[in-house]
Amino acid sequence: MSKNLTIKDIAVLAGVSITTVSRVLNKHAWVSEKTRTRVEQVIAEHQFSPNLMARGMISRQSYTLAVIVSDITNPYFVTLVAQIQQACLAIGYKITLYDTQSANRSPQHDDDESAIFQSIIDSQIDGVIVLGGHSDYAPIPAGYLTLLESLMDKMAVVVVGQPHPAGRWPCVMRDQQHCVGLAVNHLLARGLRDIAFIGGSRKVWVTRERVSHFHATLQQAGITPRDSWICLNNFYPEHGYQAIDTLWQQAEQPQALVAINDRVAMGAIRALHDRGIDVPEQVAVISCERFPGSEYFIPRLTSVDHQNPQLGQNIITMMMAQLDGSLSPHARCSAPLKPVLIPGESA
């Protein structure tokens, strides 16, 4: 009777997924000791030995993950992808990178995403990690949501950022509130109360979350935020520069700026320098999101570190839990890591 058992039967008897049995048979590292022991006991009890054809079917698992980003030139994505790759290499996986270049494109134009998703489906890919792009829009475009849900029906998917509206996809959360609180409270502690927010986009969930908490933090300090000092124009250095042009056309200017990220902060500091305004003596600048290399900028940026190395590990942990069937329905969204303020010279 044991000779007729299949890998699927072993999975059922052990109470695990077929993928987990595959990993145990192939002596893969990403299986807990408790689970490995249980599977090995079932295999031993039933004297199970997969035939060559079954082993060939097992080996069809590619140990490859697709990583989809919306703009690989963005330092945030560059560093996070590097951390994801390191975490993958440690467990015998590799990644394939797909860059949709959707960061500066209307969400209505989802042809590129559709082609990429189809390419992934046609490839031998075990799972997909989605970083930013249209999954971070508020609301998520209906067409893109349909594409992503279709992909989820065919393979494991982990989204980094915004949770699914109905809680369907596994999500690794990033802190979008505490980072702003750290930045604003740092400025308030210096006695600065006239504070503007620059960078980001109204259509992006990350920006909405950060601006909302920017308002809340100022109000808690007894300060009424000025709508004219909220300049949401995008995420790149030129937008930081343009934000200064916009703010300095007004009758009154802020004492300090909270930038959506380091690149926007750098553009703003350059614009202030071109106007003969000293940072931080005349205007303080602080960033909600630290990028590598900011410590070499003049002045050295004061910014908030989101702990990308640990974030990358958390992403892979959730993906592996999905692949081996151990992801709890109650753990489909991970708690965000707490960001840390990195003191610099700009604020």
From TrEMBL:
**Record protein name field:** LacI family transcriptional regulator
SUPFAM superfamilies in the cross-refs? lambda repressor-like DNA-binding domains, Periplasmic binding protein-like I
MF terms from GO for this chain are: DNA-binding transcription factor activity; transcription cis-regulatory region binding
PANTHER family under this entry? ARABINOSE METABOLISM TRANSCRIPTIONAL REPRESSOR, LACI-RELATED TRANSCRIPTIONAL REPRESSOR
Output the Pfam families linked to this UniProt entry.
LacI, Peripla_BP_3
- InterPro entries, per this entry? HTH_LacI (IPR000843), LacI/GalR-like_sensor (IPR046335), Lambda_DNA-bd_dom_sf (IPR010982), Peripla_BP_I (IPR028082)
Every copy of the HTH lacI-type domain together lies at 5-59
Which keywords annotate this record? DNA-binding, Transcription, Transcription regulation
- Keyword Disulfide bond in record: no
